Amino acid sequence: MQTDFTIPTNGPGLYEFTAQVAASLHGQTAGVLTLFVQHTSCSLVIQENADPEVQVDLHNYFARLVPPTTDPKMAYLTHTYEGPDDMPAHIKAALLPTHLSIPVRNGQLMLGTWQGIYLFEHRDRAHRRNVIGHLSS
Amino acid sequence: MQTDFTIPTNGPGLYEFTAQVAASLHGQTAGVLTLFVQHTSCSLVIQENADPEVQVDLHNYFARLVPPTTDPKMAYLTHTYEGPDDMPAHIKAALLPTHLSIPVRNGQLMLGTWQGIYLFEHRDRAHRRNVIGHLSS
Amino acid sequence: MQTDFTIPTNGPGLYEFTAQVAASLHGQTAGVLTLFVQHTSCSLVIQENADPEVQVDLHNYFARLVPPTTDPKMAYLTHTYEGPDDMPAHIKAALLPTHLSIPVRNGQLMLGTWQGIYLFEHRDRAHRRNVIGHLSS
């Protein structure tokens, strides 16, 4: 069973969509759900959903680990014609997951108490991001 | 078929549990095993199981890449009330896998000769970590 | 259904094998394909397949993030007897994926327009790398 999700984003950072994913299970009682994002400039992560500061800190850490190509430290990068945030977005998309796999039991996602599912946007401009869900038995 | 694993940890570093995972297959001959950790401050990694220095070096690399929030370089982090090792643990949990998928053939995990399955603990205090295994055909 | 792939490499960098993976589907119409690399010194990544500069930049970023053990910054590493590129290769293999999961629909890999499947080699010498594909329904 496959489900398509569209996640609108409006600049870099984490966008939670746990509730949409949970609603897509439609009573299937057991299996494993794979989520796959069809882009190379954003990521999927499972992260703490309790304190919103965690998501802000995550964004700020990765913004420093992979600065824009306008930063002199990144002068060796050559793929710059799509904007200073483009090649860093590809690097973050390599460092962070393109897909997640989450067990399902008794019709529930087997997430831990503090785990939420996030799309991590790496580009500056607004985007609509496609995520495909596939539930295997 | 799902199996729950509990991995006790006693400070940061890698804890191998390949043997428990192999024992959980119970004769299923082919499929893919997904392992999922229900926490946002530890990770699952597949790494070299030959020389224990590799695991020590991995721990030391990530301790430098993401230092505690008491390090002046990390002064921009705001989620600090759970201890100096907490937000770095969340960052490492984003950088490293929350889940692994390993093919099974002839009743065996199709790991390479030098591959072992590890829980990578990022917190200082002792924990009991929950990992869920799901075997798909 | 499982398929074995052998990817020859000749030094560090990204090697695309999307076409071999697509050809291995053999008409199975829906499911999820898991790819797993049986080594701890190379990785599997999904990345932009349009501009080859992206792959060069990715390689150069990771070469700086995890320099050879001959770099004074890496003097704390102890696993050095297999060469200056060996322990950094293990670190990159922790940072980057060992496995990928890609949905299949209507007999096609559900990759985005610009997504390709790459083996990311981290060692200096030539290697032959084993990747196992497993298609779940």
Molecular structure report:
By secondary structure, chain A is an alpha+beta fold. In chain A, 22% of the residues lie in helices and 40% in strands. The first copy, chain A, is built from three helices and eight strands, in the order E-E-H-E-E-H-H-E-E-E-E. Chain A has helices at residues 18-23, 52-65, 86-95, and strands at residues 2-10, 13-16, 30-37, 42-48, 99-105, 108-109, 115-121, 126-136. In chain A, the strands form two sheets. Chain A has a five-stranded antiparallel beta sheet. The longest helix of chain A is centred in the middle third of the chain and has 14 residues, at 52-65. The first copy, chain A, starts with a strand and ends with a strand. The mean pLDDT of chain A is 96. Chains in contact: A-B, A-C, B-C. Chain A binds chain C through residues 2, 34, 36-40, 66, 76-79, 87, 90-91, 93-95, 97-99, 101, 130, 132, 134, 136-137, and chain C through 30-32, 45-48, 51, 53-54, 56-58, 60-62, 64, 95-97, 100-103, 105, 110-115, 136-137.
